[in-house]
Amino acid sequence: MRDFIVGIVGLFIGFLFILLSLDMPILIARGYPGPSFFPIILSITAIADGSLMLIKYFRKRVVSGSIISTNKTVTLRNPYLKNAVIFLIIITTYITSMPYLGFLLTSFIFLYIAQVIYGVSPIKALGIASGTTLFVYVLFIIVLKVVVPEPILGPIVYR
Amino acid sequence: MVDLLTALQMVLQPHVLLSILLAELFGVFVGAMPGLTATMATALLVPFTYFMDPVAGIAMIISMSAVAIFAGDIPAVLLRIPGTPASAALTIDAYQLGRKRPVSTLGVDLFCSMLGGLTGSLILIFMAPTLAEFAANFSSVEYFWLTMWGLSMAIVISAEDPLKGVLGVIIGFMMACIGIDPVYGYVRYTFGRLELLSGISFIPAMIGLFAIPELLKQISNPKERYVIKLSMTERVFELVKEVLRKFKSVVLRSALIGTFIGALPGAGADIAAWVSYGVAKRTSKSPNEYGKGSLEGVVAATSANNAALSGAWIPLLVFGIPGDSITAIALGALMAHGLRPGPMLFQRQGTLVIALFIVFILANILMLLIGYLSIRLSSNILKVPRNTLVPIIAVFCVIGAYAVNNSLFDVWIMLTLGVTGYFMERLGIPIPSVVLAIILGPMVEFNFMTTLIKSDMNPAIFISRPIAAGLAVLAIFTWVLPFLRSRRRYVEGDTGKLGT
Questions:
Q1: Could you tell me if residue A154 is inside a domain?
Q2: Chain A residue with Cα closest to B40
Q3: pLDDT band at B379 (very low <50, low <70, confident <90, very high)
Q4: Does residue A18 fall inside a structural domain?
Q5: In this predicted structure, what is the pLDDT of residue B496?
Q6: Shared domain check, A60 and A87
Q7: Residue finishing a domain among A70, A100, A125
Q8: Does the beta-carbon distance from B163 to A53 stay under 8 Å?
Q9: What single string gives the DSSP state of each residue in chain A?
Q10: Measured between alpha carbons, how far is B74 from B82 in angstroms, rounded to an integer?
Q11: Does residue A115 share a domain with residue A56?
Q12: How far is A94 from chain B (nearest CA, A)?
């Protein structure tokens, strides 16, 4: 089944890139290759690759006579997937709120919440979140002069 | 002889030695921090070098960059996050190997980095003019085939299913197509976003593709308290004997490849590591171990990337042409001291050149001490429980991606590619193939297009020059071989099934 999905992905990105390249010239004056010449070659290769994957998948299926025995089944589901999804939600919220609350505050909140959710005691999480935020502040803002996102109300208390 | 003694006197000054040590400490820190590159660190160092004598100033750049390339392997081994692009090739194997023996894997890394760096330095000392002359013959055709050869490593990496490797390469290439086209300056696939004009930044992409899938995997598995169980009895250099017994030739060959590729302007330590890794896999007695924690793979990549660093100084010193971005900045520093690299430098300031050669040797030897301390310190990170470590690393990934261009957009790129990478891994599309194609994509396209334009669209130009033809044979052979092997396995598998 994985071969089947990969084949479809190959075809999809191949056709998508062709579609996106339609408004760019493939060839320019004197028949020279234009800006979409190389991407079109890539798209054709992606379509060919995807087709070969599908052919391979269906040939295996014909040989074995059963779809289940042809390949490993896709195991995108997993009992602990919930943890990964929660993590993605927290990190997305962290990045989204950064321009409004500033880098340091959001980092501190993210570190604290993520640790507590995954079982670290609140007191310990508070200490680790504070220490890490301080370290990041000294290293990136003081020493390396990285201009991090500031809170929407400006640097009232911190950057 | 008199020159050599004078050069030794110049290098063995306390302030020069102190500069080397401080620069190496700075190099460890920069290399081990994802998002900070050796190039960025060199740029930060240059203003300090203005106030020093030329030997101390240039020694700082040489020492810092050598150590930074090694230190980039530290987060690759411990956390699957390559600290610098030069560590990307070995990340998967080093991490897998490091899951069993993190400290000694880093020890091998350090030792081979030193050997690679020393070999590269010796080649720089004895063969610089010859190599530089050979590299000067490379035109866009040779570069095209060289990069195609480098790319074939993506297929070698994914020998289990080369079609998936090809798809990984195409996905990487397509990402590299985003932004301003390298030949005409045409804006492509940016959807009106100004942030995409200069393309997808490589470092956020690399952090996303390597680190985020691993963080998601780690956080999904609450059973294990630690990412890796650290053994207190593990010694740093305990695997070195095995390396010296089994992989002497791998170290030497990789260092030679690394130096040669480093000497080609535009091809740096990252490409050297990939090519060397691919060559090692093809010639290995146990190629199936690659991608699953192959010691040989780690040895090959890490020896090559440090050797490439010395190699990059060959065209700089001989012709005044920088071999990579670090030497480009070093060129500025040399010129600020009134030194104009080129053939005349060897004649007019021979002693200084010898002093720089000595610095190369010294920096690589001292790296052993600084590296040892950094391994001992950094491995403590594995004592932090998984549920604390993962959020902390996530913050470093975010700031690492952000710091490249001071842009939140890069952080989103990192996260998006991270999630994409997670699913690609589940589907068996090799992440290193994607990363390799993002690195080489612009070079391949530029050299392919300019060659076609130069020849009035005559494809025969691609094999019209002897070096190009040789590289073409090598590249095509490397591309086709895994497919033939895969076909043979498939046919044998079918025959086996039918027979039973």
A1: no
A2: A144
A3: confident
A4: yes
A5: 46
A6: no
A7: A70
A8: yes
A9: -HHHHHHHHHHHHHHHHHHHHTTS-SB-GGG-B-TTHHHHHHHHHHHHHHHHHHHHHHHHHHHHS-HHHHSPPP----TTHHHHHHHHHHHHHHHHHHHHH-HHHHHHHHHHHHHHHTT--HHHHHHHHHHHHHHHIIIIIIIS---PPPPTT-SSS--
A10: 8
A11: no
A12: 10
Distances (CA, A) of A49 to A95, B150, B161, B171, B476: 36, 20, 12, 12, 17
Structure tokens given for B313: 């100084």
Mean pLDDT for the stretch of residues A3-28: 90
**Judgement on whether residues A8 and A58 belong to the same structural domain of the protein:** yes
Q: How many domains does chain A have?
A: 2
Q: Cα separations (Å) of B223 from A86, A120, B214, B254, B352?
A: 17, 14, 16, 40, 59
Each residue's pLDDT tens digit, B265-305: 666 788 888 889 888 888 888 888 888 889 999 999 999 98
Which residues on B lie below 8 Å from A148 (Cβ)? 399, 402
Q: How far out from the chain centre does Cα A49 lie?
A: 23
Please list every residue in chain A whose beta carbon sits closer than 8 Å to the beta carbon of residue B440.
Answer: none
Q: What is the largest CA-CA distance in chain B?
A: 78
- Residues A9 and A66 reside in one and the same domain: yes
| A50 and A90 in a common domain | no
**A62 and A90 together in one domain:** no
Boundary of a domain, candidates A17, A39, A70: A70
Question: Is the predicted pLDDT of residue A67 greater than 60, yes or no?
Answer: no
In a domain, A116, yes or no: yes
Q: Which pair of tokens denotes residue B337? A: 């001291």
Q: Which residue of B has its CA nearest to A23?
A: B188
From chain A, pick out residues whose CB is under 8 angstroms from the CB of B167: 6, 9-10, 46, 49-50, 53
Q: Which two tokens stand for residue B193?
A: 């976003």
- Please, what is the average pLDDT of chain A? 83
User: pLDDT-based confidence at A115, cuts 50/70/90?
Assistant: very high
Owning domain of residue A131:
81-143
- Inside any domain, residue A156: no
Pairwise pLDDT comparison (A155 vs B358), residue with the higher score: B358
Which is nearest to A28 in space by CA: B185, B190, B459, B447?
Answer: B185
CB-based burial, B227-251: b 16+ in 10 Å, e otherwise: bbebeeebebbebbeebeeebeebb
Same domain, A45 and A105: no
pLDDT at B333 over 60: yes
With beta carbons under 8 A apart, name residues in chain B contacting A49: 163, 166-167, 170
Domain match, A61 and A85 both: no
